[in-house]
């Protein structure tokens, strides 16, 4: 697994894009992550992650429609590329494999 | 989930656009790369709107701030490399627009020629004055700054207790040697003493004088340590040893060239100083002393020769202002610490009596130029207050010029409202307009800057002549000048450009296009009035100052001094044993000449710059008086020559030694004697000898300059101390008299150079500084008035244009020319009146303080203030009426036809 290519936050953002597609853009992603993690997530952080992911070729973007609450500005909408999808499933597989190897008794003591 | 209930006041309505808060948005807008701007700002906005709904305004605002801060990262700031294709997105701030701004600026300047001339001329004069003031202040502050050990060099000075405490820069002669012995930790102790005398250059056999050089000052005796302490570099010779032998001398390059043609030739040659026996071998050549030094050395002789010839070698009480001593403090000794040592030092060496008379302490080198309690070798001190006053005047003159600019520019604004309207309609924003108008100010300022430098260059020679300086305007030698000019330019641009630009850019496009902008809508009328008042306050203060100084000057020149000073020449005479034998011959020959009324030998003229003061014993008292009297040695004819009336007793009879004393009224008063007659016959003794009775009392005369009070004066005849002859010439034959004095004098003293000076001229030199001041202030007030009037003229011409129609209507309705002129001048007269109310008390306060420095002074009468207001009103009226009359004389048909 190419760890260095996908930071933890990037991974979550990538997931969020996949979940929210085709209406994924930084505000909804940040809001979604806030809801899921109960942590405040700044648009700036999300935006930076999106920029990096796009650079790596995991995401692609285009300018979407403008809305009033944006002061008439357009939003940049993101979709996951094929490469992005492959990386996601790769990560997913690694995680799953490792989860399955955990001995159940120990697992019970956690919660 | 952290969310709170929605803000009830907002209700569950749909999410709307809300303006995001404050300057932080501006910041991110500016910071963010253009290609990201839209999405980033959109995101921020949307998020903010969402949060307002959910969390309320305050919380949303806080989060918004955090969000924005989170955006401040390089990837956001970094601009995308743009390749501008033809026709794609023209950028209004690129060269096209800038070129347009410059073009418009120049067109405007050339269209309103009078306006631009007034602005540029006013600013140029203001900046030039400021520049000159800067040069002078810089020069004054630079005195002796070039010595590397400057901060550790101290001068030992004296505090005298003869009645009142007074100060002097000289020290008793034994001080340097004693200091060296007592405090070996002092790195350097150097004595330097001002001497003088004619310099002769003999032939190789030391028989015949080949060249004679007049004593022009600059002759000093110094210890070699002096050159190790101060950084006066030597071109040739060793600074450590050049003066260590007796009969050695150092010349500056300049003097060496004067004496011997080439300074390289000078080494090893001998010079003779003061026609004495002593010959000095030149052992070193000193680099020419820079103008900003208080040590105007020209010829420096071995200190050993001076000590050998002095009778005061071991005298701890006598002090001359010429006897100076400098020390180099070690790094670990503070001046306060050393001063406490000085106390012990004085106690150790002086008798209690001497200690009660003269105390010594040290002062740092950087006070030598600025402490007016003392003098120095260059005889030129300037108090820090004086420097501040100069700086203030410079700033004020600049301010007056800037005020002009603001006034004219805002007045002019109406004419440009149309342009502003068009620009705004075409999409210029306020910032762009502001920068456009600031740009125009910059063009004007830079133009004035160049003219100012030119003006300063042209006037500098006059200033140098006036102040006896040798300043020059060179940007290469003086890079600070460039910095100063740059700072001045920036200050001027912002001070004078910002307000008009702000006003102009603030016009509403709709109003401006409809030509609905008039002087009234611009507002700022009260501001313009305020500025005019400011200008005139400054101008009037300067006028009052000038009038006071000029009056005081003429008071100095016309006040009777109690003795004759017209048609009297003072001619220095040599006083060595051989010359003394010729005194009688000189006098008898002179008196026989036609054109000469009277001749008298004396030590000093009745009023002289340098004086000799000493306490004395009166009436066989054991103790000396607790005040010192001014000592003057003069022959019996002195009183007749200078017309000094004896009011009690008689003058002493002719004699070469002290046979009787004449004192003045003040001395009798200081002795506590009521009746003048009672002092006659009482014995006086000076320096424990020279006992003789008082034979007469002379009427008080001004033996000092009018700066100080009349001192007690003690006079007697003593040939050994005669230093000059006072020759009273017949007023109708001054030329002939002068010629015969020179002829006879040079015949009797062939080895000496003849010099003479009229007494009234030498007395006028007491007031040189005030004279310079008065010329400077005349200049400053002229400049201030000139600039203020330029501004006034501009304002009135503007007003005249604005009110053309009004004037036309008034004329049609029967107003006379004078009524219309009154209409224009009324307001300015009131403004000048207001300015006067401010200027009068301010200048009264300062001039009262200035006058208090003089013992004899003019009263600050109302007349002076009336002159000031009268003058400013008059000048303002002349300025105003020129335009006003023209407006009034205009044919109303022309002005009203446009309706």
Automatic annotation (TrEMBL), chain A:
Domain Transcription regulator PadR N-terminal: 23-87
SUPFAM superfamilies in the record: Winged helix' DNA-binding domain
Signal sequence segment: none
InterPro entries named among the record's database cross-references: Tscrpt_reg_PadR_N (IPR005149), WH-like_DNA-bd_sf (IPR036388), WH_DNA-bd_sf (IPR036390)
Superkingdom of the organism of origin: Bacteria
Name used for this protein in its record: PadR family transcriptional regulator
